[in-house]
Amino acid sequence: MHELISLQAFTKTSSCFREGITSPLYNVLNVISYNFATLAANAHHCDGNLRHMSPSSPSTSQPAEQQLLVEVGVLGVPNAGKSTLTNALAGSKVSAVSDKTNTTTRSRLGAFTAGATQVVMFDTPGIVAPGQNLSPRHLRRVESAWKTASECDVLLFVIDAQRQLALPDPRVLRLVQSLRGGTIPGLSSKMTLPATALVLNKVDMVPKEQRSMMLPLAEQLSSQSNFDEVFWVSALRGHGVNELREYLIQVQGKSKGWIVPEEANTDASVQDLACEIVREKIFRAYYKEIPYEMEIVPLSLKELTDGSRRLEMDILVRSDSVRQIVVGRRGAAIGSVGRAARLELENMWKRRVHLFLNVKVA
Questions:
Q1: What is the rounded CA–CA span in Å between residue 112 and residue 119?
Q2: Torsion angle of the four alpha carbons 163, 283, 155, 116, in this order, in degrees rounded to the nearest 10
């Protein structure tokens, strides 16, 4: 028999899932004046309300013939902050975030709409330059990311500025060089890439003694490719995010017609988003390869008469020994995952959530 560990969530919470900070955007061609005290003083809370797509939701305020669409590919090596940036641009969490590499395993769609223009962002799995792939599975994932990128109107190439200054990642330079000329050699099919903007992320984490090195870093990377723009951001704190939104709104898209309702920030269903939150908590809770070996299968979503939601999911693992680790002593490990996921879901939806997680050997 499969051992089932079920968690039922009852406690409500009103805290936000992230903080946002707005401050001026600094183009690499201009003088950088980064005031960390001002960033901290300007911190403000967002409501964290997760808007989702419903098949019956209308795309309201703009006539179809006036709707403009900009498709954006978000690329970068693993752990550059691509998912955090996508969430910040969308205004709410649409993609799982953790400090483990390759948390994003397939492209996720985030979106925002301003006036007649809808910007949709594809948060892709972490990529490496051709010839650097470690396995056929990784190669397929990388090729999928590049294919998504080639079909977009503009790319955001995201780099962890703090990490690149502290311990330069050779994968970054190889990728930047691959972007030169707009084509990616070494893949199974030739792909032509659109215009690309360089996004130097995590600038809030750069130590004071290294801030003078940020401009030379941007100049070095820009000299290796043909970036249309260079932006400095802190996706986690919101620095530069509004200005990056403004840049994306001005991009001339190839297509017309919105693909998600005006008020939506993703095309994912409520159930899919709940699975994404649970997956994020799994990646944060377990070590080594265990999170990569789990599969989350949504079973049911019910709207209850008291306004709460009941969700049930199976978490499939490959062996009984892994199941014991995932469950933990007396259910403590999976209990912690469930509580963290439930709190964030309640915070997003502003309602009580009953969450059941069943751990099974597939």
A1: 6
A2: -130
Identify which of 176, 166, 174, 165 has the alpha carbon closest to the alpha carbon of residue 198.
176
Query: Own/partner pairs for 244-249, CB < 8 Å, 24+ apart?
Result: 244/25, 244/89, 244/156, 244/199, 245/89, 245/112, 245/114, 245/119, 247/197, 248/70, 248/72, 248/89, 248/119, 248/154, 249/70, 249/114, 249/115, 249/117, 249/119
Measure the CA–CA gap between 37 and 21, rounded to whole angstroms.
12
CB 7 within 8 A of CB 334: yes
Residue 135 or 10, more confident? 135
Q: What is the pLDDT of residues 120-140, one digit of tens each?
A: 998 877 665 545 545 565 566
Give CA–CA dist 115/176, Å, rounded.
33
- Residue 138: which region, alpha, beta or left (left: phi > 0; alpha: psi -120 to 50)? alpha
Closest CA to 119 of 67, 159, 53, 47: 67
- In contact, 236 and 81? CB cutoff 8 Å: yes
- State the Rg of the chain over Cα: 21
Q: State residue 118 phi and psi, 5-degree precision.
A: -110, 130
- The gap between the terminal CA atoms of the chain, to the nearest Å, is 12
The helix/strand/coil state of 222 is: helix
Exposed e or buried b for every residue in 180-198, given b needs 16+ CB within 10 A?
eeeebeebeeebebbebbb
- List alpha helices for 11-51, DSSP H: 36-41
Question: Model-level pTM?
Answer: 0.70
What is the Cα–Cα distance from 362 to 325, expressed in whole angstroms?
15
Q: Which residue has the tokens 């962890």?
A: 160
Short-list 321, 328, 268, CA closest to 298: 268
**Containing H/E element for 276?**
helix 270-285
* Residue 161, both tokens: 């500025």
Largest Cα–Cα distance in the chain?
A: 65
Residues 6+ apart with CB under 8 A from 284: 98, 99, 340
pLDDT, tens only, 293-304: 788 999 999 999
